[in-house]
Structures are given as structure tokens and as C-alpha cells.
UniProtKB/TrEMBL annotation, chain A:
Cross-referenced Gene3D superfamilies: ATP synthase (C/AC39) subunit, domain 3, V-type ATP synthase subunit C domain
Pfam families listed in its UniProt record: vATP-synt_AC39
InterPro entries assigned to the protein according to its UniProt record, in alphabetical order: ATPase_csu/dsu_sf, ATPase_V0-cplx_csu/dsu, ATPase_V0-cplx_dsu, V-type_ATPase_csu/dsu, V-type_ATPase_csu/dsu_dom_3
Subunit-structure text: V-ATPase is a heteromultimeric enzyme made up of two complexes: the ATP-hydrolytic V1 complex and the proton translocation V0 complex. The V1 complex consists of three catalytic AB heterodimers that form a heterohexamer, three peripheral stalks each consisting of EG heterodimers, one central rotor including subunits D and F, and the regulatory subunits C and H. The proton translocation complex V0 consists of the proton transport subunit a, a ring of proteolipid subunits c9c'', rotary subunit d, subunits e and f, and the accessory subunits ATP6AP1/Ac45 and ATP6AP2/PRR.
GO molecular function, one term: proton-transporting ATPase activity, rotational mechanism
Keywords on record: Hydrogen ion transport, Ion transport, Transport
Protein name: V-type proton ATPase subunit
Record carries keyword Cytoplasm: no
Reported function: Subunit of the V0 complex of vacuolar(H+)-ATPase (V-ATPase), a multisubunit enzyme composed of a peripheral complex (V1) that hydrolyzes ATP and a membrane integral complex (V0) that translocates protons. V-ATPase is responsible for acidifying and maintaining the pH of intracellular compartments and in some cell types, is targeted to the plasma membrane, where it is responsible for acidifying the extracellular environment. May play a role in coupling of proton transport and ATP hydrolysis. Regulator of osteoclast fusion and bone formation.
Similarity-based family: Belongs to the V-ATPase V0D/AC39 subunit family.
Gene Ontology cellular-component terms listed: apical plasma membrane; endosome; phagocytic vesicle membrane; proton-transporting V-type ATPase, V0 domain; vacuolar proton-transporting V-type ATPase complex
Keyword Ion transport: yes
Species of the source: Rhinopithecus bieti (Black snub-nosed monkey)
Automatic annotation (TrEMBL), chain B:
Protein name: V-type proton ATPase subunit a
Family matches, as Pfam families: V_ATPase_I
Function: Essential component of the vacuolar proton pump (V-ATPase), a multimeric enzyme that catalyzes the translocation of protons across the membranes. Required for assembly and activity of the V-ATPase.
Gene name tied to this protein: TCIRG1
Keywords, ordered alphabetically: Hydrogen ion transport, Ion transport, Membrane, Transmembrane, Transmembrane helix, Transport
GO cellular component annotations of the record: plasma membrane; vacuolar proton-transporting V-type ATPase, V0 domain
Record has Thylakoid as a keyword: no
Molecular function GO labels: ATPase binding; proton-transporting ATPase activity, rotational mechanism
Bilayer topology annotation: Multi-pass membrane protein
GO terms of biological process kind: vacuolar acidification
Length: 350, 829
């Protein structure tokens, strides 16, 4: 692809970029959060949200208001915006947007399979599925008994199909295997997405590659952390790491050998980017590793808006909006459970 | 009219509203629309205010109203606006309204729910019937027999456990867009142990919820084996298909079909319980419009009350509001009236205020459009000179200078007159078209513009580009012909002839009004008009701008800034009049004193004016009057000397006044504050800056915050803008000439290219009359579209610019904000 996105970018994607930047301006500010935190009840929260760009999105909800209703409505709104972007997008932006939905689709598939394993009703689980990752064949996931079944019958027509090549096996789908399946899918998804951005070149690559590298490294850390004390062997663990990112390849090899949090931290100390993150864990306010990673992610996504003519803004916007939704849900939970001591541990965006 | 010159005196009023009577008081104020409430709780977020619960209840009610409205709309009924003025209901009525609407909404929901259930049932039956009657039968039956005939021997050969293998069916309907995916998934998941047939329904069925027609795909799947069957059921479930029992025997199917049709026919007549629904809707129609208005008002009242603060004793609410001094008695009375019931009277009294009050200029339907022109540039500062009253005359006049044509002016005038005469008709008022509304709001403006265009049209002597000779022309061709003895041969040779005004009897004197019609025949018509219009534009421009500078005097006097009279207005006037006023003088002097007799040696004003700045003289150019050069040199030196005065005068004056103030500040400040406190009642009577002393005090306050460099910078910008502006603005007024030239030429072209060709087409009366019909139609349409609408818009735009930029920047700052009183007027309409 030619260099110099300035010349032709706006022809195809200018409108959507403008739109997404406008949407970004509607993210809640620090002042909004300060006001939200003061709310006494969910009704107050609703009234305050009405003064923001959310408008009266809760107007049609019957009383009493619950956190899950707020969450669903917010997701619906985001989904509506995303659908609009997607319906108005041209190639290669539409492929990019499809890649973005893949992660939600993976989550949904895994969620449904777990549900089927525990004999829960499909309806109940469907409610929990992320609307961005919806696809028609989704509900049929529970008829599959092995990964290859799943692939051949159901997922072959979805965008997830290419990611399945690494995880075809005839193992029965028990809990561990599903978890492995998820991680393998995620791994090949991230690698494919990374490759796509890299091949696209231009500003998109400049912006998206660091974000995806961070995502890959985060997954590696989280996988390592979650595998402590499980029956997962070190070799297996290594096969789950996405094969790119700042940690690849030496860091990943070291991570594969790590046996507890301190060893993991030692690995991170080799990397200037991750050292401060691990140092912040457990410090003031008792932050978890997850929180620290979220903060870093928000930072990177906000920075993505500093450059123009690239697709990263769409990714960044959706991720920021997700973070905002997590914040609001957190605050709403704290309010409804009358558990105000930790209400301030949301992650402000702007 | 008197109130148009500057905005009315507005005072900050503190209202003490007894808690019991606060609601009635505010609702009464909303009906009157006298005051603008200030938010005293700006730091309190929306949900922590006092009346948030009531606001929320109103919102709940509005939500129900929206539901009812939607139902009414779906039933195809129209809501009529309520009759008469409805006051905001007392708070206790809210419960009654709420109960009633809730009950209605509940009933409506029930009726709808029943209807929906019935429709869903009907839909289901129809689908089932469609699936059965879709004619999968023969094909499938064929497949069935084929399968058996082919497979039987094969299967029977081993004689194994498959002997009881038989074909089962799943039949149902699915939305068309899902059908291909379903088919593929079935194929993949079941590995060909099935035969599926998909067909589209011929007639669309009504969707049970939306009522829109939707097509369906019906399908019939035949399969072998129980496990496959379970899989198929799961798959059809997840695609949200409607699955129906499918009997194997043809007769049984037909029987079922008949039964279904019978059932659906039974359902059909009972389907809409119409009468009850229309009863409920009738009640909704009665209740909804007044309810909506009342609740809307109620919500507005609570929102206003939310802006009040609570007194320490909790006995009353304290509101602060801007109110015109003229309306204070009305305000007092309104408060007294609405709080007498409660025994405690609400009070309003003026309090002093440092903030700039809002601008209030009352308009009527005539002045509103002119005030609108001014406000579109910027709402005036409090008590600043308002350009609107002058705009009433200058705007239509400057427009007419560019639009001058009797015929076009008359058309515009008649159009505006029709609107003015019809303004009270409800149909005209209710028209929703935005373009029409724009014209309608400016009808008085259009009226004056048309009138002035007729006037300037007479001066230009143009009516649809033709000259009219109301009076006998001042020029005599006969005299010229007699005097110079033109022979027939001479006339035949010369296409154009010159009329010489120096020959006696040829030029009898100026035409009584406007341009002599004889000019329309002349070859040098255009150059004559150009010279006239150009000079006229400059004269109008300089007069207009000088008037603007003079208006600044009233601002300075009113705000007690007398120093600016001497240090700003005087230098500005000297500069403007010394240079460009002198140019105007030259033009008029030459008109009056140089006659046709001395035309050959007439001096050129342009050369004189250039020489004036170069301090030189050209020997070929005769002076206009004796000692001209001395006068000119004096004027230039005087004008240039004014520039430093303008540049440094005000800053130096301010700094000089500022310095002693600085020195005595620590002690003086406290005294002042004390004095301010003691003076409170006095100040509240005097109001804001209405007397000079107070304004001076405010000035001191401002200066204390000002930095010398900032003052200097500001004044430097102002000076440069004014001096350069004098040149460029004068040149800018030449647009009057350009636009009027363009208008005249366009109408001339239209006449020559369309109408006069049409008139010259045929000599026979009958033919000419027939030909003229389409030609006149074209002429009329083009006159209206191009000359009236297009040219009119462009002339309007330029007149607007001349007022906003050239005129108003001489004195008008337009940095105020409008008084927007708390009123229910919008709700009542």
C-alpha cells in the first residue's frame, strides 16, 4: 500500500473518522465522574447521566432500575454506534472492524460452550453475551461435542474460521479444554490482527501495532498468572502465548519457566515498559495487576487520538467506551450495594 | 419608540417567596414572563437540588404521555391543541393527573396486549396453515418413495438393526434472511441425513407486533434417525424458527389444514376489540393535550424553583432575578396577589449588583425585524446606543439604492403589503414552511424596502429598466437640430448625434425629479450614471459613517466616560471629515459651481484628492476655488495629527487617573467598602450605573485590573482599525454603485433579450398577441426569480454588511446578552 494516508484516507474513511472523533468527545470527563460518585441512588445516577451525552437512554426502562439494565442499555448504545460505523465502512476498514468484533465473538463462543457444559439454558447465557460479538449461528454452538465438530459445522462461515486451524483436536470439550481453546483462539486471532495491521502499514500500523503488542504481552502475563497452581504444563503454557509483542521471544521463554508472581515480576523487570506497571501493583490503593494494565491500556488508547488518518481510533474508541462502561457499572454497583469505600477506584479516561 | 434608543433599565431583584406560596408565585411569574431567574445553586449538581423529586415525577408523567401520544398516533388520530390558557395546576392536582393517565395507560396497554396476543395467535395459525398448504407435499412424498424404493433393498440386505428406520418430518417457517444459513448449517451438522426443502410464502403475512407485511420461508425437513432429529430441533430452535407438527398422511394433513383455516376465520372477526379501544382513545384525546401543557408548565416551575436558595430559617425561598425597572410594580403586584392566600406576602426588592445586567429592548411587530438585524450581529451591551431605530430607515434606503427600480419595488411592496394585511389570518400564522416564515417575519422590512425602491427607482428613472417621462424632458432635440442646421444627408451619415448644452435652447434646465428620461436614449448613458452613482455612494457612505461616530457620543456621555469625547470621538470625527468629508465637499462643490459652459476646463476631483495627500499640484488641473492648496494642506496635517491623539490619548489619561488610585489603595479600599455597605439602600434605588458617580466607581474597579500594556495594545488596534477602516470602508460603500449598476444592467438585458424581441417579432396584431403570451410569461418568471429574488437577496446581503461592518463598528460593541424571561409563552402556543 502506498505511503501517505493523508492523500486518500479521507475519501473513503474521512466521514467515519470525523464521526468517531465526535463520539470520543462525548466520553465522560473527570468532572462527570466526580458528580457520579456523589450519587445516592441509581435514580440520581440516571439523572446525572441524562445531562451527559448518554441522554435519556434509560428513559424507557421500567422501574426499578438495576445495574444490569444500565449495563445492557449502555452496551446497546455502543453496539448501535459500532453498527453504524460498520455499515458505512469501506474496505479495508470494514475488515479492520470485523477483526475488532472477533475477540467478542470468541468470548461469546466460549461462554456458550461453558454454559452448555454446565447445562444452563441458552437464553440465560445469551443475555450475558456481548452484543458486539453476536452472529447468527452462535446459538447452535452447544450442539458441538468436539472442537473439530464446532469448526466444521458452525464456525466455518464466521470470521473466526481461520483462527481454528491451530486448535483442531478430537478432545472432548471439558472445562480445561475450553479454556485452552479460548487461549489458542485468542492467540491466533491476535497474531492475525497484528499481521493485518502490520501489512496495512502507514499510520494504522504505527498506532495499532504497539496497542496489539501490549495486548499480547498482557495476555502472556495473565495466562502465566492464571496457570500457577493448575495442572497446565510449562510447555503447554508456552504454546498459548501470542508470538509477537515486546516479550517475544526471550521474555516469553522466561515467562514459561516462571513459577510464582515474584519470578514473573523478575521477567517484567527486564522491560522498561512493564517494570513500572508491576511496581505499581499493590501500592497505594491496593491496585491489582488487572487495574494497572487497564490504566496503561486507557493511556495508549487516548494517545491513539493524537494522530490522524488511521483506523486505530475506532479500536481505541470502542476500548475507551468499554472502560467507561466498566467504570459506570463499578460506580453503580458500589451505589446499589451501599459499598462506598472503594467507589473511587474507577479508571478516569479524560 | 422611546425605549428603542437604548435598552431598558434592568435591576437585580431579590424575591422572598414564602415556602407555601413559592409555587403559585413562580407559576404566576411564568404566565407574565417578567423576570429572568439567576441560578443560585450553580455549584449543586442536578440531582441534589431541592425539588428534584417533583421534577422527576413530572418526567415520569411525561413518559406516560409519550406512550399515550404514540398510541394515538398509531390509531391514526390527531391531537388537537388545548383551548384557552391553562395555568400550571396546583401541586396537589399532579396526583390526580398522574392517577388518571396511569389508569388510561394501563387500560390502553391491556387492550393492546389482548389485541397483540390475538394477532400473534392468528399469525401462528396462518403460518401453520401456510406451512401445511405450501405444497412441499408432492415433492417430499416423491422423495419419500424414491428413498424407500432405492434404499430398501440395500438396507434390508444386511437385515441389521436398521429395519425400523423410517422417515420423520420437521416442518416450520423461518425469516427469509436466515434461511440460507439455516440450510447450510443443517447440511453441515447432519451430514446429509436429511432432505430439506425451502419455499417462500406467496403472500406476506402481517407481523404481529409492527403490523407490517413480512414474507416467510417455510421449510420441510425429512430425516432419518432420532439423534439427527434432536440436532435439527436444536438448530431450528436457535434460529428462532416456528416449528409445527407435520402429519405424515396426506388426508390427515388436509384435515388439519381445514381445521386451522376454520380457527383462523373464527379468530378474525373478534380480532380487534375496536369499540372499547376507541372509547379509551377518546378519553385520551380529551385528557392528553391539557395534561401535557399543565405538566410541562409544572416542570418548568419546579426547575425555576430549583434555582432558588433556601433561607436560613427554611421559611422561605430566596430567588434572584433580573427584572426591568418598568415592570417592578407589576412584579410586586403579581407577588402580592399570588401569595395573599397563604397569609404571608412574598416580597421583592432591588439589590445592587456588579454584574452587567441583561439587555432588554421591547419590540413590536414592526420594529422586531429591524431589531433582529441588529441582534444577529450581536446583542447590545447593557444601555448601549441601539442602532435599530436608525436601521429602520437606513437599511431599506441602502437596500433601495442598490435595488432601485419602480416596477420591481412595486412588486416587492405589494407582496409585503399582502402579507401585512393578511397577518392576522390564522392560516398564515400557522404556516410551517421555514422559508415562508422567514419572509413573513420580515414583512414590514420588505414593505419599507419595496417603498424605498420605488422612490430610488423614480430617482434613477427606471421601471423594469424603461425610463418614464412624467415631466417634459429638459433637453430639446428640436432646438439642437434647428440651431446646428442638420441636413438630411448629415443625419443619414451619422448614426449618433451630440446634444450640446451650451447651445441655447437645447438644455432648458434640470429635470424636476430624478434622472432625465432623455439619458435612456443616450449612448453615454452608462458613463453618466456611473459618475453619478459613484459620487452618490461616497456621499452616502461618509454621511452614514460620520453618523455612526456621532452616535458614539451618546455612549460616552451615558457611561460617564467624558474623556473619550475629547480623546476619541473628536479625533475620529476630524480624521473622517477632514479627509473624506472634504472629498464629499469637493463633489458637491463641483456639482454646484462648475457648469457646462466651462466643461472643457473642468477640474478633476480625483487628481486634486491625490495631490492633496502628496502636497503637490498639477499645473493642468485648474483649482476649484482660490487658496485651495492651503486649505487642503491644513486638513491633511490636522487629520494626521489626530492619529497620535487617538493612539495615546485614552491610555495616557487612564494611566494618569490610575496612578494616584494605586497609591492610596490599601487605606482607601476599606473606606470605600465601608461606604459601599452604608450606601446599600441608596445604591439599590439608584441601580446600576444609571448615574455617573456609580459608573465612575465601576470604572475605577476595572482600571485596577487593567495592565498598561493591555490598554495600549487595545487602543493601538482600535486606532489602526479606525484609520485604515476609514479608507477601506469608504471604498466599501462603492458596492452601492456596483450593485445598482448590476441590477440596472441585468434588467436592461432581460428587457432587450426577451421582451423587446418578443414585441418586435411580428407586425400583425393577432400573431403578436399570441407570441407575446409565452414571452411575457418567460419575462415575468425571470423578473421574479432573477431580479426580485436573487438580486434582492444579494442587495439585502450587502446592505446587511454595510450596517454590520461599516456602520456599527463605529460605536456598537454588541457584547451583551438578552434578557430571557421565565415564561410559559412557548408552552401556550
Amino acid at each position: 500500500m502506498l505511503e501517505g494516508a493523508e492523500l486518500y484516507f479521507n475519501v473513503d474513511h474521512g466521514y467515519l473518522e470525523g464521526l468517531v472523533r465526535g463520539c470520543k468527545a462525548s466520553l465522560l470527563t473527570q468532572q462527570d465522574y466526580i458528580n457520579l460518585v456523589q450519587c445516592e441512588t441509581l435514580e440520581d445516577l440516571k439523572i446525572h447521566l441524562q445531562t451527559t451525552d448518554y441522554g435519556n437512554f434509560l428513559a424507557n426502562q421500567t422501574n426499578p432500575l438495576t445495574v444490569s439494565k444500565i449495563d445492557t442499555e449502555m452496551r446497546k448504545r455502543l453496539c448501535g454506534e459500532f453498527e453504524y460505523f460498520r455499515n458505512h465502512s469501506l474496505e479495508p476498514l470494514s475488515t479492520f472492524l470485523t477483526y475488532m468484533t472477533c475477540s467478542y465473538m470468541i468470548d461469546n463462543v466460549i461462554l456458550l460452550m461453558n454454559g452448555a457444559l454446565q447445562k444452563k439454558s441458552v437464553k440465560e447465557i445469551l443475555g450475558k453475551c456481548h452484543p458486539l460479538g453476536r452472529f447468527t449461528e452462535m446459538e447452535a454452538v452447544n450442539i458441538a461435542e468436539t472442537p473439530s465438530d464446532l469448526f466444521n459445522a458452525i464456525l466455518i462461515e464466521t470470521p473466526l474460521a481461520p483462527f481454528f486451524q491451530d486448535c483442531m483436536s478430537e478432545n472432548a470439550l471439558d472445562e480445561l479444554n475450553i479454556e485452552l481453546l479460548r487461549n489458542k483462539l485468542y492467540k491466533s486471532y491476535l497474531e492475525a490482527f497484528y499481521k493485518f495491521c502490520k501489512n496495512h502499514g502507514d499510520v494504522t500500523a504505527d498506532v495499532m501495532c504497539p496497542i496489539l503488542e501490549f495486548e499480547a504481552d498482557r495476555r502472556a502475563f495473565i495466562i502465566t498468572l492464571n496457570s500457577f497452581g493448575t495442572e497446565l504444563s510449562k510447555e503447554d503454557r508456552e504454546t498459548l502465548y501470542p508470538t509477537f509483542g515486546k516479550l517475544y521471544p526471550e521474555g516469553l521463554r522466561l515467562l514459561a519457566q516462571a513459577e510464582d508472581f515474584d519470578q514473573m515480576k523478575n521477567v517484567a523487570d527486564h522491560y522498561g515498559v512493564y517494570k513500572p506497571l508491576f511496581e505499581a501493583v499493590g501500592g497505594s490503593g491496593g491496585k491489582t495487576l488487572e487495574d494497572v494494565f487497564y490504566e496503561r491500556e486507557v493511556q495508549m488508547n487516548v494517545l491513539a487520538f493524537n494522530r490522524q488518518f488511521h483506523y486505530g481510533v475506532f479500536y481505541a474508541y470502542v476500548k475507551l467506551k468499554e472502560q467507561e462502561m466498566r467504570n459506570i457499572v463499578w460506580i453503580a454497583e458500589c451505589i446499589s450495594q451501599r459499598h462506598r469505600t472503594k467507589i473511587n477506584s474507577y479508571i478516569p479516561i479524560l | 419608540m422611546g425605549s428603542m434608543f437604548r435598552s431598558e433599565e434592568v435591576a437585580l431583584v431579590q424575591l422572598f417567596l414564602p415556602t407555601a406560596a413559592a409555587y403559585t408565585c413562580v407559576s404566576r411569574l411564568g404566565e407574565l414572563g417578567l423576570v429572568e431567574f439567576r441560578d443560585l445553586n450553580a455549584s449543586v449538581s442536578a440531582f441534589q437540588r431541592r425539588f428534584v423529586v417533583d421534577v422527576r415525577r413530572c418526567e415520569e408523567l411525561e413518559k406516560t404521555f409519550t406512550f399515550l401520544q404514540e398510541e394515538v398516533r398509531r390509531a391514526g388520530l390527531v391531537l388537537l391543541p388545548p383551548e384557552g390558557r391553562l395555568p400550571a395546576p396546583p401541586p396537589r392536582d399532579l396526583l390526580r393527573i398522574q392517577e388518571e393517565t396511569e389508569r388510561l395507560a394501563q387500560e390502553l396497554r391491556d387492550v393492546r396486549g389482548n389485541q397483540q396476543a390475538l394477532r400473534a395467535q392468528l399469525h401462528q395459525l396462518q403460518l401453520h396453515a401456510a406451512v401445511l398448504g405450501q405444497g412441499h407435499g408432492p415433492q417430499l412424498a416423491a422423495a419419500h418413495t424414491d428413498a424407500t424404493s432405492e434404499r430398501m433393498p440395500l438396507l434390508q440386505a444386511p437385515g441389521g438393526p436398521h429395519q425400523d428406520l423410517r422417515v420423520n418430518f420437521v416442518a416450520g417457517a423461518v425469516e427469509p434472511h436466515k434461511a440460507p444459513a439455516l440450510e447450510r448449517l443443517l447440511w453441515r451438522a447432519c451430514r446429509g441425513f436429511l432432505i430439506a426443502s425451502f419455499r417462500e410464502l406467496e403472500q406476506p403475512l402481517e407481523h404481529p407486533v409492527t403490523g407490517e407485511p413480512a414474507t416467510w420461508m417455510t421449510f420441510l425437513i425429512s430425516y432419518w434417525g432420532e439423534q439427527i432429529g434432536q440436532k435439527i430441533r436444536k438448530i431450528t430452535d436457535c434460529f428462532h424458527c416456528h416449528v409445527f407438527p407435520f402429519l405424515e398422511q396426506e388426508e390427515a394433513r388436509r384435515g388439519a389444514l381445514r381445521q386451522l383455516q376454520q380457527q383462523s376465520q373464527e379468530l378474525h372477526p373478534t380480532c380487534p376489540p375496536k369499540r372499547f379501544l376507541s372509547q379509551v382513545l377518546g378519553r385520551v384525546l380529551q385528557l392528553l393535550p391539557p395534561g401535557q401543557v399543565q405538566v410541562h408548565k409544572m416542570k418548568a416551575v419546579y426547575l425555576a424553583l430549583n434555582q432558588c436558595s433556601v433561607s436560613t430559617t427554611h421559611k422561605c425561598l430566596i430567588a434572584e432575578a433580573w427584572c426591568s425597572v418598568r415592570d417592578l410594580p407589576a412584579l410586586q403586584e403579581a407577588l402580592r396577589d399570588s401569595s395573599t392566600e397563604e397569609g404571608v406576602s412574598a416580597v421583592a426588592h432591588r439589590i445592587p449588583c456588579r454584574d452587567m445586567p441583561p439587555t432588554l429592548i421591547r419590540t413590536n411587530r414592526f420594529t422586531a425585524s429591524f431589531q433582529g438585524i441588529v441582534d444577529a450581529y450581536g446583542v447590545g451591551r447593557y444601555q448601549e446606543v441601539n442602532p435599530a431605530p436608525y436601521t429602520i430607515i437606513t437599511f431599506p434606503f441602502l437596500f433601495a439604492v442598490m435595488f432601485g427600480d419602480v416596477g420591481h419595488g412595486l412588486l416587492m411592496f405589494l407582496f409585503a403589503l399582502a402579507m401585512v394585511l393578511a397577518e392576522n389570518r390564522p392560516a398564515v400564522k400557522a404556516a410551517q414552511n421555514e422559508i415562508w416564515q422567514t419572509f413573513f417575519r420580515g414583512r414590514y422590512l420588505l414593505l419599507l424596502m419595496g417603498l424605498f425602491s420605488i422612490y430610488t427607482g423614480f430617482i434613477y428613472n427606471e421601471c423594469f429598466s424603461r425610463a418614464t417621462s412624467i415631466f417634459p424632458s429638459g433637453w430639446s432635440v428640436a432646438a439642437m437640430a434647428n440651431q446646428s442646421g442638420w441636413s438630411d444627408a448629415f443625419l443619414a451619415q451619422h448614426a449618433t448625434l451630440t446634444l450640446d448644452p451650451n447651445v441655447t435652447g437645447v438644455f432648458l434646465g434640470p429635470y424636476p425629479f430624478g434622472i432625465d428620461p432623455v439619458w435612456s436614449l443616450a449612448a453615454n448613458h452608462l458613463s453618466f450614471l456611473n459618475s453619478f452613482k459613484m459620487k452618490m455612494s461616497v456621499i452616502l457612505g461618509v454621511v452614514h459613517m460620520a453618523f455612526g461616530v456621532v452616535l458614539g457620543v451618546f455612549n460616552h456621555v451615558h457611561f460617564g466616560q467624558k474623556h473619550r469625547l475629547l480623546l476619541e470621538t473628536l479625533p475620529e470625527l476630524t480624521f473622517l471629515l477632514g479627509l473624506f468629508g472634504y472629498l464629499v465637499f469637493l463633489v458637491i462643490y463641483k456639482w454646484l459651481c462648475v457648469s457646462a459652459a466651462s466643461a472643457a476646463s473642468a477640474p478633476s476631483i480625483l487628481i486634486h484628492f491625490i495631490n492633496m495627500f502628496l502636497f503637490s499640484h498639477s499645473p493642468t488641473n485648474r483649482p476649484l476655488y482660490p487658496r485651495q492648496e492651503v486649505v487642503q494642506a491644513t486638513l491633511v496635517v490636522l487629520a494626521l495629527a489626530m492619529v497620535p491623539v487617538l493612539l495615546l490619548g485614552t491610555p495616557l489619561h487612564l494611566l494618569r487617573r490610575h496612578r494616584p488610585h494605586l497609591r492610596r489603595r490599601p487605606a482607601g479600599r476599606q473606606e470605600e467598602d465601608k461606604a459601599g455597605l452604608l450606601d446599600l439602600p441608596d445604591a439599590s434605588v439608584n441601580g446600576w450605573s444609571s448615574d455617573e458617580e456609580k459608573a465612575g466607581g465601576l470604572d475605577d474597579e476595572e482600571e485596577a485590573e487593567l495592565v498598561p500594556s493591555e490598554v495600549l495594545m487595545h487602543q493601538a488596534i482600535h486606532t489602526i482599525e479606525f484609520c485604515l477602516g476609514c479608507v477601506s470602508n469608504t471604498a466599501s460603500y462603492l458596492r452601492l454603485w456596483a450593485l445598482s449598476l448590476a441590477h440596472a444592467q441585468l434588467s436592461e438585458v432581460l428587457w432587450a433579450m426577451v421582451m423587446s424581441i418578443g414585441l418586435g417579432l411580428s407586425r400583425e396584431v393577432g400573431v403578436a398577441a399570441v407570441v407575446l403570451v409565452p414571452i411575457f410569461a418567460a419575462f415575468a418568471v425571470m423578473t421574479v426569480v432573477i431580479l426580485l429574488v436573487m438580486e434582492g437577496l444579494s442587495a439585502f446581503l450587502h446592505a446587511l454588511r454595510l450596517h454590520w461592518v461599516e456602520f456599527q463598528n463605529k460605536f456598537y460593541s454588541g457584547t451583551g446578552y438578552r434578557l430571557s424571561p421565565f415564561t410559559f409563552a412557548a408552552t401556550d402556543d
